[in-house]
Amino acid sequence: MRRLILPVSVFGTVCGCAVLLKNRVTGGPCPSKAKIIGKTVVITGANAGIGKETARELAKRGGRIIMGCRDMEKCEAAAREIRGSTLNPHVYAKHIDLASVKSIRSFAEKINREEKRVDVLINNAAVMRCPAGKTEDGFDTQFGVNYLGHFLLTNLLLDKLKDSAPSRVINLSSVVHILGEIDFTDLNWDRKKFDTKKAYCQSKLAIILFTRELARRLEGTGVTVNALHPGVVATDLGRHTGMHQSQLSSTVLSPFFYLLIKSPELGAQPSVYLTVAEELERVTGCYYDVMTEKEPAPQALDQEVAVRLWDISASMVSLETTVSVPASSEAARTVKHNLPAAADNMTTMTTS
């Protein structure tokens, strides 16, 4: 028996160190313990992966969760599971197809009509490296779903977000935005040869440009807008990449994958952090790599490109009304800023 003590101790130590190292490498859990009781959170793509675990964590914290998904059967099942595991009855499934302008408008109309408030909008849904294809309205699938759909949805919910201020918009982007380029001559890959990787990177760059421009336009409203890279997460999103399909990646590289690739639970923590952290209540126009604020790639900081992309996007989705541009030249030069404190009668996040 004594002979087993040393190897068991060594094994336990190694496992413990591996867990601690993984948490350090991947960012670990959200440090904030804040509750969101009485807050309404809308999350797209919430039936699986990061979105589902974000919904679960925020339901644990007392939020009223609206899960917007294309596949209602899976969404209803996920909502039931979350209600059961969190004992929070206020978790709801609603249909939205981000590849359809009609569906997005219908979803937004229902939210605006049925919900008294929207405190947080998490634009989580995405497709990644998928084959060439078009949305219902003729947009490149990745550009349409990842960016344009959320651009339209956010604008349609802005009045509700403003009425609920202080409120937050959280856009999920990716570190691969550094490889992105906005090609205004062919945003939808109608003329040039389709490149699924470049199309994905373009969509993620567009999200950060949108985040910064929206933050600028919402100056003084009490609505903050931030973008994040959640890290490398083991979800079905990467099914088109073939990353883990070789024998090499599934055996030799498994220890490295364990340290670098997060579970969906860990992958949800950055979204949770940007939702609940009290210190971020007035921070806007920022990009977070997991839970650390970082400056995005230079092309994500181009104000002229951001404004041009906004105008073209509004035209593409027939958006008749958008938020106004700040009149001051200083506002035009500065995107990252702290918003003024909201009115005294507004509710705030509470800590447990």
Q: Considering the protein shown, what is the CATH homologous superfamily?
A: NAD(P)-binding Rossmann-like Domain
User: Total number of helical segments?
Assistant: 13
Q: Please indicate the count of domains.
A: 1
Q: What is the ordering of alpha helices and beta strands?
A: HEEHEHEHEHHEHEHHHHEEEHHEE
Q: Return the structural class.
A: alpha/beta
Largest sheet composition: 8 strands, mixed
Distance between the termini: 45 Å
CATH topology: Rossmann fold
Strand order of the largest sheet: 4-3-2-5-6-7-9-10
Which stretches are poorly predicted, pLDDT < 50 over at least 5 residues? 10-24, 250-258, 329-352
- How many β-strand stretches? 12
Question: What form results from the Cα inertia axes?
Answer: globular
GO molecular function, one term: oxidoreductase activity
Keywords: Oxidoreductase, Signal
Signal peptide: 1-16
Pfam families: adh_short
Please describe what this structure looks like.
It is a single chain. With 352 residues, the chain is an alpha/beta fold. The protein has one domain (32-325): NAD(P)-binding Rossmann-like Domain (Rossmann fold, 3-Layer(aba) Sandwich), CATH 3.40.50. It has 13 helices and twelve strands. The chain has helices at residues 2-26, 49-60, 72-86, 101-114, 141-156, 158-163, 196-217, 247-251, 254-260, 264-267, 269-276, 303-316, 329-333; strands at residues 34-35, 40-44, 64-69, 91-95, 120-123, 167-172, 223-229, 283-284, 286-289, 292-294, 337-338, 350-351. Strands 4-3-2-5-6-7-9-10 form an eight-stranded mixed sheet, with helices on both faces. The radius of gyration is 21 Å and the shape is globular. The N and C termini lie far apart (45 Å). Keywords: Oxidoreductase, Signal. This is Retinol dehydrogenase 13. One of its GO terms (molecular function) is oxidoreductase activity.
